[in-house]
Amino acid sequence: MGENLTLVQAVRDGLRDEMAEDDDVLVMGEDVGKNGGVFRATEGLYDEFGEERVIDTPLAESGIIGSAIGMAAYGLKPVPEIQFSGFMYPGFDQIVSHMARLRTRSRGRFTCPMVLRAPFGGGIRAPEHHSESKEAFYVHEAGLKVAIPSTPHDAKGMLIAAIRDPDPVIFLEPKKIYRAFREEVPDGPYEVELGEAAVRREGSDVSVFTWGAMTRPTLEAAENMADDVDVEVVDLRTLSPLDEETVVASFEKTGRAAIVHEAPKTAGVGAELTATLQEEALLHQEAPIKRVTGFDVPFPLAALEDYHLPEPERIESGIRETVEF
Amino acid sequence: MVRVLNEDGEVVDGAEVPDLDGDELVEMYRTMKLARRFDERAVSLQRQGRIGTYPPLSGQEGAQVGSAMALGDDDWMVPSYREHAASLVQGLPLKQTLRLWMGDENGARVPEDVNLFTVAVPIASQIPHATGLAWASKLKDEQDKAFLCYFGDGATSEGDFHEGLNFAGVFDTPNVFFCNNNQWAISVPRERQTASKTLAQKAEAYGFEGVQVDGMDPLAVYAVTKAAVEKAKEPAEGELRPTMIEAVQYRFGAHTTADDPSVYREEEEVEEWKAKDPIPRLEKYLQRTDRLDDETITDIEADVEDRVADAIAAAEETPRPDPVEMFQNVYAEMPGRLEKQLEWFQSIRAEHGDEALLED
User: Fold this and answer.
1) Among candidate residues A122, A132, A124, A167, the one with its CA nearest the CA of residue A147
2) β-pair partners for B60
3) pTM for the full model?
4) Residue of B31, B93, B107, B251 with fewest CB within 10 Å of its CB?
C-alpha cells in the first residue's frame, strides 16, 4: 500500500527511500539541510541521515555542481539541488563542460552518475528569474539526460531511476504542480524508466505532445473538446533521451500533432519534435504541426504570467487549428 | 618566499634540504630534463604540423616535477592542461600526452591504476572537481589520501577558484591547491589578475594556509608540497587540511603554440627569468654535492633523447581512432537516436570510403 502524496512529497519520499537503500547517495545544496529545502523537498532528511549526507553548502552554484562532479567521479552518488532552475546559469559551465562530458573526455575512465535537481517553470507568482523553463539548453547537450515528471508517482519513480542511472541526469521539477494534487505513491523504492513517454489519454484525431506542468491543462483542453475531437495526449516525461518510438507511433496513428510547452517557442523542444516528425513520418502528416508555447520573451513577472503560460483555452485553440486545417 | 637553492644551485642560508637520497635527486633531474626535451620536440612537431595546438611547459619543470614527486602512491593529481611533466611523474605515458594534442581523446584516458584526473581546459573549472574528489574521500572515511590540484595565475581570477577553495575550507577537505604562477595568462600579466600582493595570501580568506615558494627551485617545491600533502592527511590541532601553494615561476615559451609572446612581453624579461632556470640550478647543486658527474649528464641526455623519440614514434604509429568511438562513451548505453545517427554515418562511410571524408 502506498500513500496519497503531492509531487514534492513524492520527490522527498524518493530521496528518502533511495538514501536508505544506498549509502552512497547524498543530498547537497543551499538550505537543503536543517531548513529542509525552500520547497520542503528534503524535509526531515537531515534528521534522518545527518549532516554528512544532507549537506548545507555555501551559496555557490558552480561550487555545488563542480564539487558534486568530483564526488560522483569518486564513487558517490550526489544529488545536488539548485534552489530554482533560473539560478543554474552560474553553474552552466560545470554542467555542459564537465558534468555532460566527463565520460566522453576520459573515454570512460571517469563517469558522473549524479542527479542535478531543480524546481523549474512558472505559475507560482515568483520574482524575476524564479520561473524559467530552459530545458532545451540541457536537451541540446550530449551526455546529459533530462527528465521532467508530471505526477507524484512518476516523480518518485523517475527520481530513483535517475539516481540509479550511470549517467548524469538533469531532473527538473515543475513547481507549479508541486502541491496541486495528490496521487497514490507506492511505499519503498521503485523505478519509472527514463526514456519512456506515457500516453495519458488515448485518442484518434490528433496527438498532443507535452510534459511537466503543461500536462494537466493539456488534458483539460482534451476533455473540453472531447465532444467533437478525440485528442491523444502524450506526456514525454524524459526529453533526453527522447522516446521517439512512442512519439512517431502516435503521430502515425492520428496524422496531426500539436506540441505544448511553457518554454519560449524559438528553438524549444517543440521545434525538435516537429523536425523529428517531419523526418520520420512526413507521409502520415495531414496538417501543419502546431506549437502552443510560451512567447519569445523573458518570463514576465506575476501580473502577466497567466498570459504567457499556455492554459486550456489557448491549448484548445491550438489543437483546433491543426485539426481544422 | 620559500627557497632551498639559489640561482647558482647553492643552498641558501638557513634552508633545509629535503630528505631525498642521491638516486631520488638524480631521478628528479632526469625527469626535468626529459620534460624539457619533450617540450622542445612537441613545439617543433606542432610547427611541422605533426601535432595540433600545444601548451608548452618549459620553465615550469621544477614546479611540476618537484610537486608531483611529493605525492604518495595513493594520492591523487588533478591537472590543468599544461601538466605534462607532473602527469608523467604520476604515471601517464608521454605517448598519451602527445596523442591528446594530436586530437585523439584516447590520450586523455588515464590508465586504471593511475590516480590522475582527466585534463581540463576551461580555466579553474577543475578546482571544484578536486574539492569534490577530496571531499568524497573524506566522506568515505579514507584518511590517507591527498588531492593535488594544479592551475595557473589566471585561474585565481575565476569564480571556480573561489568556490572550490571556499568549499575546501568550509568542509576541511584533504586538498593541496597548487598555483603555477607563471606570470602571464596568455598576454595578460599577473598584475592584471589581482591587486593582491601575493596569490598565496588569498588562502587566508578561506581560512587555511597559503605558501609562496620559488617555483623554479625544485627542492623548495618538493618540500612545501610534501608538507602540504602531510597536513592534508593529518593536520595539527586547530589547523585546516587544505593548503594553497603559489609557485612563482615563468613560462619561457608561448601560452600555446597559437600565440606569439613577443607581442606582449619584453625579451629582457624572458632573459631575466631564464637565469633562474630550474634545470641548471639543480644540476649545479647535484654536481657540487657529487651526485652527478659529466658522464652521467651525457648518459641522461642520451636516455632522454631516446625516450622522447620513442614516445613520438609510438604516438605517431598509433592509428587515428575509429570514428565509431565518437559515438561511444557519450552515455553508458547508446540512446536509440544516437544509434540511428551512427547507422546513417556508417552507411555514408561505406558509400564514400573514409578517404573521401577526410580533409587533405
Assistant:
1) A167
2) none
3) 0.96
4) B93
Contact B203, B241 (CB under 8 A): no
Kind plus residue range of the DSSP H or E element containing A226: none
| Angle subtended at Cα A24 by Cα A21 and Cα A27, rounded to the nearest 5 degrees | 95
Q: Cβ of B274 under 8 Å from any chain A Cβ?
A: no
Q: Cα torsion for A294, A296, A297, A299, to the nearest 10°?
A: 30
Among A98, A130, A261, A308, the active-site one is A130
To test the contact with chain B by mutation, choose from A19, A54, A59, A74 the residue with the greatest count of B C-beta atoms within 10 A, namely: A74
**Identity of residue B210:** G
Answer yes or no: do A73 and B129 touch at CB < 8 A: yes
Q: Which of A55, A62, A193 to mutate to test the interface with B (most CBs of B within 10 A)?
A: A62
Sheet hosting strand A77-81, strand order edge to edge: A54-56, A25-29, A77-81, A115-120, A169-174, A145-147, A238-240
3-state SS, residue B334: coil
Q: What is the tens place of the pLDDT at every residue in B106-144?
A: 999 999 999 999 999 999 999 999 999 999 999 999 989
Residue B248, beta-bridge partner list = B181, B214
- The 10s digit of each residue's pLDDT in A28-84 is 999 999 999 999 999 999 999 999 999 999 999 999 999 999 999 999 999 999 999
Model-level ipTM above the cut of 0.90: yes
Annotated catalytic residue A130 = yes
- Hey, how many other C-beta atoms are within 10 angstroms of the C-beta on A204? 12
Amino acid at B359: E
